[in-house]
Amino acid sequence: MGSRAVSVRLMRLSLAIPLLIVLWIAGPARSGGDEAHALPVGLIVTRTPEEADKILRLIRSGEDFGALARQYSIDATAKDGGYLGTVDIGSLRAELRDALRGVKPGDVTAVVQVPAGYAILKLLKEPEPADPADAARNRVLAGLKSARLAPDDSGFSEFYESIRSSLPTGPQLRAWQMDMKSVCATREQAPLNGIQAMQKLIANEGERMDPYRLAHSHYTLAELWSSERDFDGAIKEEEATYQIALAASNNPMAWHMEEVLGISYLHRGAFVDPAVDPVINDALIFPAHPGVLNTKRADVEKAIAFLSRGLKHDPSNTELQWLLNLAYMTAGEYPFQVPKEFLIPPSVFASKEDLGRFLDVAPAAGLATYGNAGGVIMDDFDNDGLLDIITSQVDDCAPLRYFHNNGDGTFTDRARAAGLGDQLGGLNIIQADYNNDGCMDMLVLRGGWEFARHHSLLRNNCDGTFTDVTAQSGLLDGPLSASHSAVWLDIDNDGYLDLFIANENAPSQLFLNKGDGTFVDISHQAGVDRSAFSKAAVAADYDGDGYPDIYVSNFNGFNFLYHNNGDRTFTEVARQAGVSMPWMSFAAWFFDYDNDGRPDLFVTADFLSVEEVARSYMGLPRKVETLKLYRNLGNGKFQDVTADVNLDRVFMPMGANFGDLDNDGFLDIYLGSGNPSFASMVLPNVLLHNQAGKSFTDITASSGMGALAKGHGIAFGDLNNDGDEDVFVVMGGPQPGDRYPSRLFENPGKHGNHWITVRLVGVKSNRCAIGARIAVTVLDQGQQHRTIWRTVGSGGSFGASPLQQHIGLGKPVKIEKLEVWWPTSKTKQTFDNVPTDQFLEIREFQKSFTSEIRRPFELGGPARRAQRRNASGS
Amino acid sequence: MRYRILFLPLLFVLGLLARSIQRYEVTGLVLTVDIAHRTVLVSHDPIPGFMDAMTMPYRVDNPRVLDTLKAGEKIEFTLVVGKTSSYITNVHVREYDSWERDPAQNRRLALLDEAMRSKAGSASTLSIGQTVSDFSLVDQTNRPVTLSEFRGKVVAITFIYTRCPLPDYCMRLSNNFAQLQKRFNTRMGRDLVLLSITFDPDHDSPDVLAKYGETWKANVDGWRFLTGTLSNVKQVCGMFGMNFWPDEGLLTHSLHTAIVDREGKLVANIEGNQFTAVQLGDLVEVTLTHANFQAGAR
Fold first, then answer.
1. A834 with A752: CB under 8 angstroms?
2. Residues of B in contact with A216 (CB under 8 A)
3. Which of A32, A78, A176, A748 is the most buried (most CB within 10 A)?
4. Distance from CA of B295 to the nearest CA of A (A)
């Protein structure tokens, strides 16, 4: 009852704000809130009766009321498709009340003269889901009240502030943003300046400072040491802070420092040793092997002591509880030595299903390079039939790495030879053949979570080298904005891929590809230049009208769904479609999780509370948002099915992506976890197995893919041509103190299911076929037909999978048919007699396809063979 | 209207009732400091087993402590109630109640900025009693607002940004003002003006502030939400020691609530969120009354 009263009040509130002309609607005699007469109403207002009559005729001939409202209405509700909200009919002016009399839901009134012009009202069948979005947001904000944030212990804020306070100003700023060598120099020098300055401050003024200020000074210095990877220095200063707080009887600060020291000792003892096994990296895998190779016992014991002390003050603190259990795990004493009252039993992590163990073979493959948070593209950059890997790092001093797939299980970094050695930084990277020359190009996105730096468009010269064409491409016209998400899509189906970039606290940008290698910014004309702290940009034709639409996820704001009007303009319809939440969104993507032929929408929520994640694992009531899965209903609307498919859980995902790991035809989800705090290093990456589109099962523990530390860019792809997708994930946080080796999880392929991999080549449509749709209809052993749907794209918003589509088929008797829809030519190809377990190449307009059985090989081949020889020899 | 100041003799009565010397640990907000009478007027939190939250003047045992106390400071002290007299001792400023509610990151960033720019303190921050320099911003209805137009009224100022998701930060400060608006309902706009200044002006346009104001049921004549250019806003923030930094999509910031008297002088600049709306109201009330009294005496 109470929540209903609140939502009614919110509805009224949300109504009162956007309506400029609504004042004339409400008559002088307002009746009270009689719920029975509150009905959802749409409105169109015109200046002349002729216009109104024309619109009424169009409505009666079947034209869409919302579209007409957007096009013609002079009321403020035009932008919302005329949606007025749920209106108390009794409060309307008499003439409107009279006009609505006898009108049935779904019908419209005659033209009514009102002071502002001529109105047509429509009685809607159901309220637009606009009001629930407001209510949902308010529930989220209310829930945050008691949610506990992860503590500051990694120094990211101080690291970042030291850089920010060293930035050039005025016109010099842009020159700095354009020169990555200068940016790198600042990133290296500024934190050191910060350390010196803090040391000087403490030395000169420390004796005169009150204990509170002195403690904070030491804490600041600790954070800076931590950010610069001097954990001994950090712990020394944290201990100093703790002692000052204890001496001053400052309990809140002392208790906080106990938590920080617990985390710092656990971090130094069991997380930061860079020694990695040269073949299989089995360290930092939750829950099987949570620590590093050489866990430092003394540090872990100190961690246990501090964390236990913290739990004594605050026994219900599940963040400390999770950390304590992790500490015992790294000490090899879990579960038996964990005090009973704080034990999180193994059943909390246990997987209910086992698809076999994925091994991290990155060291053997030559891919276990240390680094910070960054992006990854897995695709074939030299057209040799093998997927290569390109990685980036947020670190402005770190160049791109271009790992060429040697075809024997190893990779060789060709960045320098390819002309990529000077491409520094970039939190994310995405690929596309924007100039239709048959070679995959890429875009480096810079500035995410920090401050604007320029992006880079790198053209593949089809000879193993790349050329930076950013300057001549037109992408630098206008102000520079920070971003780490963008999407390639052909908004007008002209066969040239356009580029949409989602920015942070700046308008999104849409660059139209002119077809001559240059782009023009049409963001404003296209109506997509809304500003938010955007975290994801993804595209799909969700309503099947032949034009790709764009979804933008925002952190601390409603998300946007830009419906493509087919004329190079877009209309924002997230509320009407029911997809404006989570309020704190991060990674997102369209995928058809239930194979009904319609792209569904997955969005992650990112509230930075280790406590809430632990509570979610432990089945305790949650206070913050969960993941979101929206099922496409096919009528332009989505249904929130999160709870129905068991995704109503709290994680802290950053990079994320999807793929079909067991070739059952249903797409699984892998989430890279964490945030800048070291407290979040104890959260594993998460693997969620799709159960035939009905639900998702957490198989993190049994899969061995529960990598601890921070997970960023993720890509799924069959790197060794053995018919299943492997998973590459860039590990590490944003500052030098948070570097980790990347991981490559090799698919054990224990499912016995079949597959095909399809590479589409556009002729009239864009050459790399982004936006083309594939449907594979199979006859399974139960003699049932089923269809598996894919749309060509690089997948999720943080990490780019290959554009060639790997399609799991389950255990079919045969493929009945394979269909391809091409976006530009609007043609469809249908193929029979398609073999399974092969690579197909399909060109637009061609009647036949080419198929190829590629030679499989073992990832990390030579090193793993040597290891086996040694093992059998000893 | 409720006015909760009790007078000194009552304490003696309480003392007489007591059989022996009693000691109580007390926290409260300093409203005024009266050096001549060796007293400090405190709106204090409930004292379990002794009295409810209320406003009381207390005599201090050591008058030197009064030199360092300022209106708007949250203090803790020991109240000693004897047979014939009562006083307070062990007075010191309370930093915060709990870690989560303290904007600690902001303190560290402020220290770092100070150290890196090697400046000793922020010279532009106003001291208590100084006249607040005039400033011009725009309110939620697009009206220009200058501080000097409120001369003759008491002005309460706080700083917010509408996207602030943390309930103990901006939401709490806005809620305080909503409580002030309720308590001083009849005096809003005439005698008392509330100014909520955004430090996220790029996002918080007048329209956005109007919407935000409606959620607090703000009366647009008495409670003005102000925005302006970033440099204008920074300038105003600087006078009150208000800091803010971009932080992963949010803003890390300090918390300040200031009271300006009828003559435009700074009465108090309360840092943090460790006070109740009632205590803030008491401070406003004292300022309103005090200024009235002075005006009447002239």
1. no
2. 104, 107-108, 111
3. A78
4. 40
Nearest-by-CA chain A residue for B98: A252
- Chain A nearest C-alpha distance from B121 (Å): 12
User: What distance in Å separates the CA atoms of residue B192 and residue B214, rounded to the nearest whole number?
Assistant: 19
Listed in sequence order, the residues at least 6 apart from A636 whose beta carbon sits closer than 8 Å to its beta carbon are A542, A543, A563, A573, A576, A577
Contacts of B166 in chain A (CB under 8 A): 144
Strands A839-843 and A509-513: unpaired
What's the complex ipTM?
0.82
Closest-CA distance, A129 to chain B, in angstroms, reads: 20
Extract long-range pairs of A306-309: CB within 8 Å, 24+ residues apart.
Answer: A306/A258, A306/A259, A306/A261, A306/A262, A306/A265, A307/A258, A307/A259, A307/A262, A307/A266, A308/A339, A308/A342, A309/A258, A309/A262
To the nearest whole Å, the CA of B134 is away from the closest chain A CA by: 27
Pairwise CA distance, residues B22 & B38, whole Å: 21
**Residue A297: closest CA among A318, A276, A268:** A268
Q: Amino acid identity of A874?
A: S
Confirm or reject contact between A543 and chain B (CB < 8 A).
Answer: no
* Of B92, B167, B243, B105, the residue nearest A256 (C-alpha): B105
Q: What are φ and ψ of residue B10, in 5° steps? A: -60, -40
Neighbours of A437 (CB within 10 A): 14
**Please, what's the b/e burial string for A214-233 (b: 16 or more CB within 10 A of its CB; e: otherwise)?**
bbbbbbbbbbbbbbbebbeb
Task: List chain B residues with CB under 8 Å of A157.
Answer: 105, 108-109, 245, 247, 252
- The pTM is what? 0.85
Does the structure show a pLDDT above 90 at B18? no
Q: How many CB atoms lie within 10 A of CB A166?
A: 16
Contact by Cβ (8 Å): A401, A159: no
Any idea of the CA torsion for A153, A155, A161, A162, to the nearest 10 degrees?
Answer: 150
Residues facing residue A120 across a β-bridge: A44
Whether the CB-CB separation of A420 and A393 falls below 8 Å is answered with: no
Chain A neighbors of B248, CB-CB under 8 A: 449, 676
**Least CB-CB distance to B112: which of A16, A158, A253?**
A158
Q: Strand ranges (DSSP E) for B106-234? A: 136-138, 144-146, 154-160, 192-198, 223-226
3-state helix, strand, coil in chain A (%, to 5): 30, 25, 45
Assigned token pair, B35: 């050096």
Contacting residues of B for A145, CB less than 8 Å apart = 167
- Interatomic CA distance for residues B276 and B284, integer angstroms: 13
Q: Mean pLDDT, consecutive 10-residue segments, chain A of 874 residues?
A: 36 33 34 53 88 90 82 76 74 79 87 86 71 69 73 92 92 94 97 97 94 94 97 98 92 91 97 93 94 94 97 93 97 96 95 96 96 98 97 98 98 97 97 98 96 96 97 92 97 98 96 97 97 96 98 95 97 95 96 98 92 94 92 96 96 96 98 95 97 98 97 98 98 97 96 96 98 96 91 98 97 93 98 95 97 95 92 75
Q: 3-state SS string over A373-387?
A: CCCEEEECCCCCCCC
Task: Say if the Cβ atoms of B247 and A157 lie within 8 Å.
Answer: yes
CA A216 – CA A744 distance, rounded (Å): 41
CA-CA distance, A77 to A72, in Å (whole number)? 11
The answer to whether B130 touches B124, Cβ cutoff 8 Å, is no
- What is the CA angle A224-A230-A236, rounded to 5? 80
Q: Which residues make Cβ contacts (< 8 Å) with residue A850, sequence separation at least 6?
A: A840, A841
Q: What is the pLDDT of residue A11?
A: 35
Query: Residue for token digits 């007390």?
Result: B26
Residues A581-611 have pLDDT tens digits of 999 999 999 999 999 999 999 999 988 899 9
